[in-house]
């Protein structure tokens, strides 16, 4: 990959905080829910609001997202709080709708990164965009698939690229929902040192109590940011309830991470 330096510049160009903090609900549920969470995050370190509107549920019969309607809520949240917005896109139609509705950052989910066909279709739909595109690792621990997705997007002249480490599935049950396998993102960084790397502790943990430690490890490893699922009433969330934390808890986590940094 050429011009590696340009990959990193977008963090500065957007005046984005370092570490970049992305926060918001797993899923956009209602307009009121999105706006409530956005306002609770407004004065925190989070500069980007996340919310999934097309939800890739592993099994059918669960809440599959509010769809395009949620794009209006994200836009309103941006207008009211000044936060940038991000959502998951999983096909070219999602890409077109997200671009039409001024979503600032698009992310490709773990179940999409596994498919070179669909990644290529998304790359073609995004060709030449100046939007920021973040690529989650594939669900399975396969570095080549992750690299391949990044290369397809870079070849489509998408220069503001980054990656999100959300952990890797395994058949055996461990204390994690998805095992971190920290060596895999480190290997990816060895290949592309200037690709911003963001941790998604929520999908690694699957629970609330280890979010802080995962964030701390990411900062110790010099990650460029974190994306944390955050909900005003986490227990009532329509998806991924067990792992979401309140904006208040996120603010506390950020304070504690800073204190640790200052004394180390
Ligand atoms: C999400 O971010 O809510 C999500 C579905 O993530 P992943 O693709 O990592 O499972
Ligand atoms: Mn989720």
Characterize the structure shown.
With 264 residues, this protein is α/β, with parallel strands linked by helices. It has a single domain (4-263), classed as Aldolase class I (TIM Barrel), CATH 3.20.20.70. The chain has helices at residues 4-13, 31-41, 69-81, 92-100, 110-113, 116-126, 143-155, 183-191, 201-205, 211-220, 247-263, and strands spanning 20-24, 48-50, 84-88, 105-108, 132-136, 161-165, 197-199, 225-229. It is globular and about 40 Å long. Bound molecules: phosphoenolpyruvate and manganese (II) ion. This is chorismate mutase. Its EC number is 5.4.99.5. Keywords: Coiled coil, Transferase. It is an enzyme of class 5 (isomerase).
- CATH 4th-level superfamily: Aldolase class I
User: Which fold name is given in CATH as the topology?
Assistant: TIM Barrel
Strand arrangement in the largest pleated sheet: 1-2-3-4-5-6-7-8
Helix content: 40-55%
EC number: 5.4.99.5
Protein name: chorismate mutase
Keywords: Coiled coil, Transferase
GO molecular function: chorismate mutase activity; transferase activity
């Amino acid at each position: 990959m050429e011009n590696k330096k340009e990959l990193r510049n977008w963090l500065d160009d957007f005046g984005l905080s370092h570490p970049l903090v992305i926060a918001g609900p797993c899923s956009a549920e209602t307009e009121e829910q999105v706006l409530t969470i956005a306002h609770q995050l407004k004065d925190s370190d989070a500069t980007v609001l996340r919310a999934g509107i097309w939800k890739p549920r592993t099994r059918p019969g669960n809440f599959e997202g509010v769809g395009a309607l949620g794009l209006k809520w994200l836009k309103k949240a941006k207008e009211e709080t000044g936060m940038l917005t991000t959502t998951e896109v999983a096909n070219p139609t999602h890409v077109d709708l997200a671009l039409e509705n001024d979503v600032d950052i698009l992310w490709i989910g773990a179940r999409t990164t596994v498919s070179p066909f669909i990644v290529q279709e998304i790359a073609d739909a995004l060709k030449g965009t100046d939007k920021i595109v973040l690529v989650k690792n594939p669900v399975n621990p396969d570095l080549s698939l992750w690299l391949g997705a990044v290369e397809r997007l870079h070849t489509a002249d998408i220069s503001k690229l980054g990656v999100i480490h959300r952990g890797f599935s395994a058949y055996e049950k461990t204390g994690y929902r998805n095992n971190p396998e920290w060596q895999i993102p480190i290997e990816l960084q060895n290949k592309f040192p200037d690709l911003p790397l963001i941790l998604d502790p929520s999908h690694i943990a699957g629970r609330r109590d280890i979010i802080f430690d995962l964030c701390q490890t990411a900062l110790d490893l010099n990650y460029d940011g974190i994306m944390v699922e955050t909900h005003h009433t986490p227990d009532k969330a329509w998806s991924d309830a067990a792992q979401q934390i309140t904006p208040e808890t996120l603010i506390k986590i950020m304070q504690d991470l800073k204190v640790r940094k200052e004394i180390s």
